[in-house]
Amino acid sequence: MNKGKQTTTYDECISYYKVLDSMYDEVKMFECGPTDIGRPLNIVVVSSDKDFDPNRIHRKNKEIILINNGIHPGEPDGIDASMELVRDLMQKPDLHKLLDNIVLVIIPIYNIDGALNRNSTSRVNQKGPESFGFRGNAENLDLNRDFIKCDSRNARSFEEIFQKWKPGLLIDNHVSDGADYQYTLTYFATQHNILQSDMKNVLDQTILPGLNKNLKDKGIINCPYVNEYKSTPDSGIVGFYDSPRYCTGYASLFNCIGFTVETHMLKPFDDRVRVTYQFMVSFLEVMNTSFQKVKNARENAYYKGADGKDIPLTWKLDTTRFDTIDFKGYEGKYKPSEVSGFNRLYYDEKSPFDKEIKYYNYYKKDKKTEAPYYYIIPQAWAKVIDLLKLNGIKLKRLSQDMNIPVTSYYIKDFETVKKPYEGHYLHYNTSISETVQKVHYNKGDYVVAIMKPPVNQDMRGNSQLFPLKMYALETLEPEAPDSYFNWNFFDGILMQKEWYSDYVFEDIAADLLKKDKSLRDSLNAAIIKDSKLANDGHAQLDWVYHHSIYYEKSHNLYPVGKVMEYIALPLED
Ligand SMILES: [Zn+2]
Question: How many angstroms does the Cα of residue 144 sit away from the middle of ligand 1?
Fold first, then answer.
């Protein structure tokens, strides 16, 4: 046994928790759905009053904290640290009292697939452990990009766990690469600007100051996750925008504040496990005293919500705003590369520095939308319906065929990555145009109520305050970065299905232009503006087709309709 240099295997980890489960009534391990590798996803629940029913726990006014480990199994610090933490919570009275107001739900290893694919080489720059799991899961997916598209069974099982336990706080444990500096521990919270204001306030005014003081008192130096503004940290560091594809971004849609712990790859494994452990203890200590403020903020956020107009869909870093933080770095220097002869960067550990740097951690709203009363989703889009249900969205169905006046989107423009990204040709920079029209919907099509009854998302009277509106908006509004549209769920609408034969349509088009003076004028205007069109007979014919009744209305028409004013819809029970 090479002490401090090895991480647990998957089987050892599960056996270990089985022992704790049998030794202590306050620890219970559950199997919660499948993963792509075929093993069940486990959770370990630590509950000091031996209550393992999430509804009852919420009603007792306890806060549930979810700890996720091994989403990247090559970064196993949290896996080992959590094992030690559960044992110590049971064996050390001063730690046990941290469970007075808190129930812990721990995912021992999330990417079981990757953890079983063990090797010693795939983290080339990391100082230990001796062997570890692989980043990709059995489908070679990065599970920390899978929380909206849910390609993996792991993600589906995670979301079932999340929706069942409804945690108010989440810790996702990682190891960072990137620049070198003196800190073993870095971390970041969910981007504060995207949080509802009560949530933002409790994060900025209570949790972060409490956590930083607690860590400082213990002598654990740390700084925000180092995401360089330019090439080295001296240029400043940038707060990470965790969109909903990420674990913490997904959590934030439900007013759950996420923390991503990133220990540094060049620090020894046992030190990294130690600070991950201490971070979690500090987190519990802060929450044990502040949990009521977090609960109150969640309650306020739930009732106030992000109502009505100007709901942000995209965010931009505000480079004009920053905080100043103390940073303990190593001097970044350059010397000739022994590989290429060109200058290469290195960090000189013999030249530590302590200076103030800029921390750019303010994002401003970019594209916005107005929340509808209802979204109407044709039943044909089954995968969308399925994922909305998985995430607790209550759906009702139309009880008859009908035409409904809706705001419809046409996809105006978008870009697509050139190579597959996490199994998808992801779209980005999507823009839409809006039109109000009557659309035919069929009996059984789905209605999501966002603003008002009759499909009631309100959970008042139930202590689990879990808002659902943001999840629906982030996935159903095509312009949001992690919308179902951008993840290719609606790509079918992007292809025209019917065409025309030039030689036949020539005569029809000529007739249309003769009968419709405004169409003729519009074509002439377009020709004046566009020299390419002016010199291309086929393009002009095509222009007429696209501006005629023969061109299919469904091309680029986003099928999800928005009902902006309250109307009583006939719904199935
Ligand atoms: Zn990671």
Answer: 8
